[in-house]
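Lab notebook, bench 4. The sequencing result for the construct came back, and we need a structural model before the next group meeting so we can plan mutations. Quick request posted to the team channel:

Model the 3D structure of this chain.
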Amino acid sequence: MIVFKSVQWQNFLSTGNAANKVLLNKSSTTLIIGKNGEGKSTILDALCFSLFGKPFRNINKNQLINSINGKKCIVEIEFSIGSKEYKIIRGIKPNIFEIWQNGELLNQDAASRDYQKILEQQILKLNYKTFTQVVILGSASFVPFMQLPPGQRREVIEDILDIRIFSTMNQLLKEKAQETKDEIIRIENEIKSAKDKVESQQTLIQTISNAKAESIKAVQTKIDANNAQISTTQSEIDNIVAEITTLKTRITGKEKLSEDIEKAKQLKTKLDEKVETCEHNAEFFTEHDVCPSCSQDIPEDHKQKIIHDLHNKMQENNKKISDLQGALTTLTTKLEDINTIIDEITTKNIDLSTKNSTVTLLNKQIKDLETEIETNKADTTNLDEEKAKLKQLAKDALDKITTKNSLQETRNLEEVASILLKDTGIKTAIIREYLPVMNKLINKYLNSMDAYIHFELDEAFNEIVKSRHRDDFTYASFSEGEKMRIDLAILFTWRQIAKMKNSVNTNLLILDEIFDSSLDTAGTDYFLTLMNSFGENSNIFVISHKGDQLFDKFRSVIKFEKRNDFSVISAP
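Done. Here's the predicted structure in token form:
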């Protein structure tokens, strides 16, 4: 259990050279009061800055230095874990970061980031996010558990259940598994290389064992076969070239044909426009008896004559369109035939290219075979010497295969361990065991605060909420006061689970302005009753503007006020 004993700060935010010090384990319940801007919530920033190097609120590090004095910003916190006493000192201008254990300064040779890891992972065994979820419920920069993204919710739960070690083990296992995988790949490449060497050596020995004449004869037979294939393929190439030449004579005039089709299309478009114009004019004279320009009546016989002429023009143009369409169809068919021939030429060109490549490859093989003949003629290697080399190469290959088998067994074990250490493995099993306890505690605290809802978290830490009438809700559906009750219930649950696990269990609980906005009078009374049931091992601090209403509810009171523009602790 972490027992926080005191925190003090000077030249920090609105505090000047005169340090403010708060004893954190003196009283079971403490009320912190003061007007706005007088430094009540500075204790939250001091705690977070001393432990994690960053404030609770969204403030830049350089803004933490008192703007009047501008230097010697110092925050100190003292706490104990079991029999060990710790003091953490942080400062800005000059920068200071010291960890004292039982009066001795821990080695500062490590980089600042690694020094912080020692504090979080080896001493506190919790990080900033978990600390703010278990120790602080604030109205400023605090993000309630239910508003955290799923990944951060899981981190908090893993810290509380003290199972983050499995994540660390999983990360180390991943690194080790990657090393094993890389080693397997390396040894496989070596095995392949060794096998290639053995095969090459066997080929060499076989070549030496055979009579040079027979070997050369066999190679020459391959050369003769390649030459015969080249002759056959070349004949096929000549035939294809002749076919392509013939086909090309059948595609002349394609450009002229394409131009004629385009002209026919343009002419048809113009005729279509003329028909459309005639139809429009005929429709006008059919529907109108008065000239729109001069407003005079149009004689009926004149209208009929115009309409008759327009219909004659439409019939004439439609006939031209029909004739033109027939011609266009004929031209298009001819063009399609030419395109079919072009496709056939393309196919034959591909075939031609393939056969040319075959000839090139056969010539290359002939060249390689001729080189092999020359090598055989010049080879005078001693057969026994080559057999000794083959034996050693085979032994090296077998040794590497044995090494690979051993590495593969290790890899198989690492894969099994990886399955166990993933989020869906051991950690999920542990979380699944504790979920009923968590949900029971959350609902117990909700009932204690007169919140008649049923609230549960699933294995992904998403909420399942039902109201009194069994309607489904989400956390966001509730009012701010109801959300505050849920946040408090979850906070108390995490502290109780931490106490059961002895993981991030601590005496300290700080609540910032929760009585000032979201909780109504009934909610405040329920919470105060619940607060007084925490026992003597808890030290609860409540920051509030409602000092006059809460004075008699707490065993001790701390008041902050401004003197000469500096925040100081004064008698309440």
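The two ends are 31 Å apart (CA to CA).
Will bring this to the meeting.
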